[in-house]
Amino acid sequence: MDQNPGCELDLGWLNSVSVNLAAIKNLAAKLETKGVKGVHRAAWILKSITLIDLTTLGGDDTQSNVSRLCFKAFRPLAEDLLEELGFHYNESCPIHTAAVCVYPSKVKDAVQCLKQLGYYDKINVASVATGFPCGQTPLKTRLEEIRYAVENGAKEIDIVINRSLVLTGEWEELYREIQQMKEACGKAHMKSILATGELGTLNNVFKASVVAMMAGSDFIKTSTGKESVNATINFGIVMSRAIKEYYHKMGYKVGLKPAGGIRTTSDAIKWLILVKEVLGDEWLTPELFRFGASGLLGDLECNIYEFVTGKCPNGYEFSMG
Ligand SMILES: O=C[C@H](O)COP(=O)(O)O
């Protein structure tokens, strides 16, 4: 995968930003009325699985639950269900998640497990970093954390931005911090978590998106999953429009990662429709779109079970999701 080269900070662009709330609400309402059914829905569910960064970010994470997460990423559906859909688990099977996402201290465990499964090259290890979730540690420490995760084998780094710089309008400082984080990532792809629920206004969400992209982010990500407001469709529309503008101005496609509170198949499908409508089908690949989710896979699997058998699964059947 190539990397976003970034560009110089363009304050003129930032100063011209004015998000039209009525238009955002209109589009969000329109997207609500769209849906997919039957075999198309099943196909979108399978697609959703391949777009997940399967996440565990708990204070109680252990080597064994990280291994369990990796195994679930490697074999996300029960074998008999997958076979009913015409797929078989073998080396060329495309049905696995895009990445697993863990804390820096758990990167080694995830790398070791995926290597044992022979999937370290197919399922990326992503690590949150930079004082996740709040980003309130000195910059030096935040940069060291990135380097630690990369040295341990992370191929993707989910940094958190310094929200206070957004709230005080210190865009140059924000740009400089993110640029240094990008440098610390080296060859690893950088996803910048904006923590949209803490940015105050949609104008700030748009501006923070643009600054993060100008500083070289390969993805922009809505939330940590720890804020009280996480991935909403309104934030998704604003960020997608920023990505589209950046593409038109700079010729580079930055990815989008909604994360936080995405739990159901209908949540996932809503996001896929949004991306298809605002950014286009070309964004619906793991290179340009991810779901950051700890609890979505179980519901996707239940929905596939229902599609295949015509029955609702018992609550205990997919406990590993
Ligand atoms: O980056 C991923 C988020 O932490 C996941 O949030 P979630 O646990 O609400 O799915």
Automatic annotation (TrEMBL):
The active site is at K221, K257. Pathway: Carbohydrate degradation; 2-deoxy-D-ribose 1-phosphate degradation; D-glyceraldehyde 3-phosphate and acetaldehyde from 2-deoxy-alpha-D-ribose 1-phosphate: step 2/2. One of its GO terms (molecular function) is deoxyribose-phosphate aldolase activity. It comes from the Eukaryota. Keywords: Cytoplasm, Lyase, Nucleus, Schiff base. One of its GO terms (cellular component) is nucleus. It catalyses: 2-deoxy-D-ribose 5-phosphate = D-glyceraldehyde 3-phosphate + acetaldehyde. SUPFAM superfamilies: Aldolase. It is found in: Cytoplasmic granule; Nucleus. InterPro entries: Aldolase_TIM (IPR013785), DeoC (IPR011343), DeoC/FbaB/LacD_aldolase (IPR002915). It is an enzyme of class 4 (lyase). Its EC number is 4.1.2.4. Catalyzes a reversible aldol reaction between acetaldehyde and D-glyceraldehyde 3-phosphate to generate 2-deoxy-D-ribose 5-phosphate. Participates in stress granule (SG) assembly. May allow ATP production from extracellular deoxyinosine in conditions of energy deprivation. Interacts with YBX1. This is Deoxyribose-phosphate aldolase. It comes from Rhynchophorus ferrugineus (Red palm weevil). The lineage of its organism: Eukaryota, Metazoa, Ecdysozoa, Arthropoda, Hexapoda.
